[in-house]
Amino acid sequence: MDKPKVVLGVSGGIAAYKACELLRRLTESGHDVRVVPTASALNFVGAATWSALSGNPVSTEVWNDVHEVPHVRIGQHADLVVVAPATADTLARAAHGLADDLLTNTLLTARCPVVFAPAMHTEMWEHPATRENVATLRRRGAVVVEPAVGRLTGVDTGKGRLPDPGEIFEVCRRVLARGTAAPDLGGLHVVVSAGGTREPLDPVRFLGNRSSGKQGYALARTAAARGARVTLVEANTGLPDPAGVDVVHVGTAVQLREAVLKAAAEADAVVMAAAVADFRPAEYATGKIKKKDGVEAPAVTLVRNPDILAEISADRARTGQVVVGFAAETDDVLANGRDKLRRKGCDLLVVNEVGERRTFGSEENEAVVLAADGAETPVPHGPKEALADIVWDLVEARVDRAGR
Ligand code: CTP
User: Fold this and answer.
1) Does the predicted model carry a pTM greater than 0.70?
2) Do residues 202 and 157 share a domain?
3) 15, 96, 242, 308 — which has fewest CB within 10 A?
4) How confident is the model at residue 66 (pLDDT cuts 50, 70, 90)?
């Protein structure tokens, strides 16, 4: 069988050296990789390195090897194009369809999935021009990976760091396995809740939980990458807003309910990944609760919070709306999951087994997705993005586009 053909575009940023590691992973896992650097990328890593590591010729211009018409052929024959690092300039040229070097020509002739892994200074990433270019590329079906937060070129830190080459490799593998980065959720509006609610006792204290919000963010990011309009209702994650996603920030379960119900009124699917507190303090002290010598510790009385998942499942804002819940179980995972699916009335329930191998805060997840129609989809241990993609596959198969 032919090896899958991958084009690795490299643009001119300091992170170009990290693309060597991505290249090595791709070649070692059986991919035929053709590196297409921009001219400025060669200021960071030379053509000899790319050529030696890939075992293929390297050129930056359309004028080299003209008899082979590489500017057309490389893109046409690729199974995947990944650009890492993608600078602000390369994203802009790609978004505007320029064809002024071999990489941009390749991007225009490629009919395969395209992945961009941006790396740049925080200001450049946050600039409205870059945001719009990213949104354009995503709308057209490219996967634009969120940059990581951390140390940048100099002493500065912030968002804009190239994600770990291993992470980019995983994204490439998933996209190649799906065979598409097509915007199959295009035209759909989805709502995702993420994080954990905080129920205040007084101005400085709250009852909370350990949900990191990472699974919800992975759902939002993958849905946006697959072309959906995404509203992310976020509670206390402290995570930066994903590009191309509308984010509503809330604190408590009551606020989360209000924001989710508002967004759900127009939505094709609602995924409740947030850890919503089942109870809140019955009373809120407007001043800080003080300890007093000789006085007993105060008792906290709790009252039930509304069950948002059950409510939106019972009262669908539109016909054919798909509602997805999450459940964490320690024992009798499947039996408890099935029971919860029935009680909540949702269409899909993602059941995580929690316990010693905890899921909270980690980058990975393992689950089984139960469907109201009886289907069971086991999701092996893997990145939260992989679980997110499976959830969207199942949602996509159930969403009623005709009823919209
Ligand atoms: N959920 C909700 N509103 C709540 C509580 C939970 O919408 N007040 C949603 C969560 O977002 C999640 C699912 O319901 O999708 C989790 O259900 P829940 O009954 O809270 O599960 P557990 O916490 O596992 O509850 P228990 O084991 O107590 O039944």
Assistant:
1) yes
2) no
3) 96
4) low
